[in-house]
Structure to design on (518 residues):
């Protein structure tokens, strides 16, 4: 029984990897299939969930013929057990992926979706091919950056396959693309990587409460010298830019019927926080109705993977999906004027300050990309990670979660010191990035209350201790709403009160949008 169980686990892992990470996988059963409406109703945890199927929905465990039939597939029938992942996009429940429980063949069987066993005969990274001996026969498969390598770490395919050797036994899943055999997922042989040892975070303090106290030689505070307030010059510049934010039409022209798009950028945790923010925002009557929040965060899309929109890989795919979400909301890049970023990287192991410095560099590249992508972007707010002390995996535990706050601070300080690579002021030269500042500070040391009373209970996270549960999503969402309501550079355009005041000061006429000089 051990071999089929191993394959079932591998199939689930490949499914999770195909969806971008370990977040939100649930088990349920199909209750209703409505091909006409394009929805699946899945019963999980005693509740029915009607989920919309989109062109991006990943369906696994179906043969090519069945897959081509989509929701009309005979295998998608009421009562069928499934693993699935749901997301909220622009206020709608969407099916991100689904895998039929038990779908796929046993190792060595070649049916569609099969998890198979093989032995490595030859790896040719230059030509991106892998020759495997399966059931006594040699077969050549193509590899790509999309190939999932379980047990391998690295930013590119070469690094992920660095542990693969000739003669190694592997489990793999193959598919067909453009008439050729390709490797969808591969599990390297040998023991699994050990869990990261637990870290005692009890002595850590939020950056906002450290003041001049030191963490490994570095002061606390969100800004230089242990302070939590923006330096006066940066505050003045932010207020000036906030005063230019106005509703824009699809072409980026000021218009009373236009929108101010606030876009979130990041990974799965960011998406969950965005879901919580959207929930509390929909119940809030005090924000400017011209503000439209769009959740651009996507599972598994870490800082290293999205920093370059022109990488012909994960970055390009990430920003293409952002475009699709903007389009689904009836908006364009030209209407994005504010961005909220919450980013990290998966499986950090470099120690301090190496990981924090690397994340700072990637955030700087991301800021430059945002400038290139969104012509009317004025304000970018950044947050560091939520608490990682409950983590049961090495995805992003403490102290890395805490240290990501230093990455954000160093990035902002880099701009404050006048680094030309992050210049936002056309009077000082070529504009390379938007104005950067702290957004809501999300880290708290577990159940120890911050000065403002904010804390995290273990129930605010799901089983992995890293991704937010519904209570955690709402808790972070409320923290975000509080920030945008009260921050001096957000309140003028985000809140009804600030918008009304801005209109009075300008005589009720929308101020023209100032184009950046390159």
């Amino acid at each position: 029984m051990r071999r089929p169980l191993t394959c079932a686990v591998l199939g689930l892992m490949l499914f999770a990897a195909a969806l971008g990470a370990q977040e939100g996988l649930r088990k349920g059963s199909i209750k209703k299939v409505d091909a006409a409406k394009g929805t699946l109703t899945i019963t999980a945890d005693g509740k029915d969930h009607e989920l919309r199927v989109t062109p991006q929905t990943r369906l696994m465990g179906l043969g090519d013929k069945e897959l081509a039939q989509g929701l009309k597939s005979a295998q998608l029938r009421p009562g069928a057990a499934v693993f699935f992942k749901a997301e909220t996009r622009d206020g709608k429940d969407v099916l991100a992926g689904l895998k039929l429980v038990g779908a796929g063949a046993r190792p060595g069987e070649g049916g569609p979706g099969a998890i198979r066993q093989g032995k490595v005969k030859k790896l040719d990274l230059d030509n991106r091919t892998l020759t495997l001996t399966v059931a006594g026969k040699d077969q050549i498969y193509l590899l790509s950056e999309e190939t999932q390598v379980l047990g391998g770490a690295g930013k590119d395919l070469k690094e992920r396959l660095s542990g693969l050797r000739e003669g190694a036994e592997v489990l793999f899943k193959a598919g067909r693309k453009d008439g050729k055999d390709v490797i969808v997922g591969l599990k390297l042989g040998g023991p699994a990587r050990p869990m990261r040892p637990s870290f005692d975070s009890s002595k850590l303090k939020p950056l906002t409460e450290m003041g001049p106290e030191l963490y490994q030689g570095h002061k606390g505070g969100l800004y230089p010298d242990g302070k939590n307030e923006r330096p006066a010059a940066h505050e003045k510049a932010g207020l000036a830019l906030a005063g230019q934010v106005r509703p824009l039409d699809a072409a980026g022209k000021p218009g009373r019927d236009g929108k101010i798009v606030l876009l979130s950028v990041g990974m799965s945790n960011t998406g969950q926080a965005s879901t919580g923010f959207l929930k509390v925002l929909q119940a809030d009557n005090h924000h400017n109705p011209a503000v439209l929040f769009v959740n651009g965060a996507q599972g598994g899309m870490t800082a290293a993977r999205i920093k370059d929109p022109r990488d012909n890989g994960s970055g390009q795919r990430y920003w293409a999906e952002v475009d699709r979400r903007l389009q689904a909301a009836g908006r364009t890049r030209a209407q994005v004027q504010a961005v909220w970023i919450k980013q990290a990287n998966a499986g950090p192991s470099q120690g301090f300050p190496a990981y924090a410095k690397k994340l700072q560099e990637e955030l700087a590249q991301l800021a430059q990309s945002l400038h290139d992508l969104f012509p009317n972007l004025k304000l970018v707010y950044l947050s560091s990670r939520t608490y990682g002390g409950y983590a049961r995996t090495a995805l992003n535990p403490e102290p890395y979660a805490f240290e990501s706050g230093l990455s954000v601070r160093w990035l902002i300080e880099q701009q404050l010191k006048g680094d030309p690579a992050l210049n936002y002021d056309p009077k000082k030269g070529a504009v390379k990035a938007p104005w950067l500042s702290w957004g809501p500070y999300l880290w708290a040391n577990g159940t120890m209350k911050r000065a403002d009373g904010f804390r995290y209970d273990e129930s605010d996270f799901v089983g992995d201790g890293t991704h937010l549960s519904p209570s955690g999503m709402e808790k972070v969402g409320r923290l975000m709403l509080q920030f945008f309501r009260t921050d001096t550079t957000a309140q003028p355009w985000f809140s009804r009160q600030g918008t009304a005041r801005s209109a009075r000061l300008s005589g009720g006429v929308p101020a023209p949008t100032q184009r950046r000089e390159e």
Notes: The CA atoms of residues 366 and 480 lie 21 Å apart. Residues 1-9, 103-112, 190-196, 502-518 have pLDDT under 50 and may be disordered.
